[in-house]
C-alpha cells in the first residue's frame, strides 16, 4: 500500500524508533505514547485491520504474540502489560494497517469501553 504510513515505516522509508524487527514484523515506539512503555507491533505485509485476518493468514498474529514476551521483558515489563488492537472506526483505529499496542510501565487503568 503506497500511501500507508506503517507500510512505509516497515519498508524503512520513514524513520522509526525500532525495538524489534524480523522478516515478518517490526516493533516500534509509538509516536504519542499513552503509557511509559508504548510499542506497536506491525506486520510488514499490509492488512487493514482485524477483519482482514482469516485461516490462511492468521499465523502472523501468532508470530506477533510469540515475540511480545521477549520485547516486554527487554523493556522492563516484568510486572505485566496490556496488548490492545483497535479495529475500525468504532474500535478507535486511526491507522488502517493492523497493529497491536503493547502498553505498560505503570499500573494501567481498567477502562474497556
Ligand atoms: P490506532 O489508533 O490505529 O490503534 O493506533 C495508531 C497508533 O499509531 C497511535 O497510537 C499513534 O500515536 C501511532 N502513530 C501514528 N503515526 C505514527 C508514526 O508515524 N510513527 C509512530 N511511531 N507511531 C505513529
Ligand atoms: Zn500498510
Topology:
Blueprint: H1 5-10, E1 18-21, E2 25-29, E3 37-43, H2 59-74, E4 82-84, H3 88-91, E5 100-104
Antiparallel strand pairs: 1-2, 2-3, 3-5, 4-5
Zinc ion binds next to helix 1.
GO molecular function: catalytic activity
Motif (Histidine triad motif): 97-101
Active site: 99
What's the name of the CATH homologous superfamily? HIT-like
Head-to-tail CA distance between termini: 31 Å
Tell me the helix content: 10-25%
Number of strands: 5
Q: Just name the CATH architecture.
A: 2-Layer Sandwich
CATH hierarchy, class? Alpha Beta
Strand order, sheet with most strands: 1-2-3-5-4
Report the total helices: 3
Structural class: alpha+beta
User: What's the alpha carbon Rg, rounded to whole Å?
Assistant: 14 Å
Please indicate the percent range of residues in DSSP E strands (runs of 2 or more): 15-25%
Give a quick account of the main beta sheet: strands, pairing sense, barrel closure. 5 strands, antiparallel
Q: How would you sum up the global shape? A: globular
Compressed to H and E, one letter per element, the order equals HEEEHEHE
Amino acid at each position: 500500500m503506497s500511501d500507508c504510513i506503517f507500510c512505509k515505516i516497515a519498508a524503512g522509508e520513514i524513520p522509526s524508533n525500532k525495538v524489534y524487527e524480523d522478516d515478518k514484523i517490526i516493533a516500534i515506539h509509538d509516536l504519542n505514547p499513552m503509557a511509559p512503555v508504548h510499542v506497536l507491533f506491525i506486520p510488514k505485509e499490509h492488512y487493514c485491520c482485524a477483519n482482514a485476518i482469516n485461516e490462511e493468514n492468521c499465523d502472523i498474529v501468532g508470530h506477533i504474540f510469540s515475540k511480545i514476551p521477549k520485547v516486554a521483558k527487554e523493556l522492563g515489563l516484568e510486572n505485566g502489560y496490556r496488548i490492545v488492537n483497535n479495529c475500525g472506526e468504532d474500535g478507535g483505529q486511526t491507522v488502517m494497517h493492523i497493529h497491536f499496542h503493547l502498553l505498560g510501565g505503570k499500573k494501567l487503568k481498567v477502562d474497556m469501553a
